[in-house]
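Translate sequence into structure tokens.
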Amino acid sequence: MKKKLAIVLSLILAFAMILCTACGGNTDGETTTKAPDSAQSDMLAKVKVGTGGNTGTYYGFTTAACQILNTDNYTFEVLSTGGSQANIEGIEDGDYQMAIVQNDVMNYAYAGTNGFNSQIQSFSAIGCVYPEVCQIIATKASGIQSVADLKGKNVAVGDAGSGVYYNATQILAAAGIDIDADINKTAASFSDAATQLKDGSIDAAFITAGTPTPAITELATATEVVVVDLGEEVISKLMADFPFYAKYEMTAADYDFISEPVNTVAIMATFVVSNDMSEDQAYQITKDLWEKQADIAAAHAKGKEMNTDIAVSAIGDVPLHPGAEKYYKEAGIIA
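Result follows.
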């Protein structure tokens, strides 16, 4: 009987050892996972990228850049969206894996303020790419020459969920104007605002975008428009209250209908990605973004404004993706 029992126990032990080996067990009784064949296995085959309205600079620049950044391992799908806030919320929801956003809005999202009911920290930065100019475009017929003149006027304040709305709120407040009480506000994309300026249903529109903004360039061929100067007092107060703004002088280089310099402010257009993106993929995207800058500049004028000196300096409290950080350290851009 004991002999039979010993044989049975031996068979059970042998079977258990076979199962352990099949499951990848080791001598400590822990399971192991087979390593992927290469880093490429962690990369997304298609990266969905949120931008802005299809007549805005976000869409045009990102489309041009992503055509340069496509690789044999992955490609990009560029999508027209409602703008910065919608892009960040889209990354949170898994709709996009990458987006171009305003640096102010991404900091609002990370802190859970200014339109964000709670913190969104599911994204990280790849880098700032070019300045976005806060523009107030008014019809010449409206007679608007200053921010103060907007009081009581019909004004487009950006698409719902866009960073333009917060720029408009802050600029108006710096001039002592309440966005809800002192103007007749309407939400509109760049293209819709241009149409409404053309047909006279609004007097002015806030647009935050790289210049020249296609929707405004096209509008100016059919309608007399002006760019409103913010004035030194408004700019000084705005920059004191919100340090992410920088002073910007618009000239004929921005729009050929500008005859004298116009003083305004700018923020930074910034690429962000989902935290779920692999370090290898974020590293490669960041590396290609800066090492193929000349090709991007040839494909879109905003590429000429890309500068590694400002790639990291304006991201604020939003962390760099580990892959982006790896590239910037290798390139000597950060310590």
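Note: The radius of gyration is 26 Å.
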